[in-house]
Amino acid sequence: TLRSLQAEEKQLDDIEAPLSGQLNVMIDEVAEAESLMQKAKNFEPALEEVQQETEQLQMEYQELSKQEADSKQALEEATACLAEAKKYAKMVEEEKLRNDKEESEVMEPALSKKANAIKEKEKLAEEAAETHRIVQENETMNQNNITAYEAKYSDLQQK
Known about the structure:
mainly alpha; single chain; 1 helix
């Protein structure tokens, strides 16, 4: 039986060697898992900070999205207002052109009559000036004639 015990011991040694190796591998894996768990615990504050930053960024993104939507709406309203203003400006310009045309149609004959009247006035002024000059020449000649006749009459009386 010693042999059978020795054979059984050898069998158990043969079984123990691989199990011991597996146990060592498992112990290493547990140690590595514990190390990873410790690292994970060390990362928890950083992870929490990243989560807070992510939440903050999400809130900022939502606010910016709302602002973008508001800006788009304001832009659309401004564009519509601009289109309306352009339409109104076009109507005003068309009305101005119509008024200018009507004014031109009314004013053109009046301006033509005014120009003719001014020419006639200038012509009459020239004629009046010429008549005035002639009257003055005649008065001067008449005065000279009177003076000459008076001198002849005075000479005739003295003789």
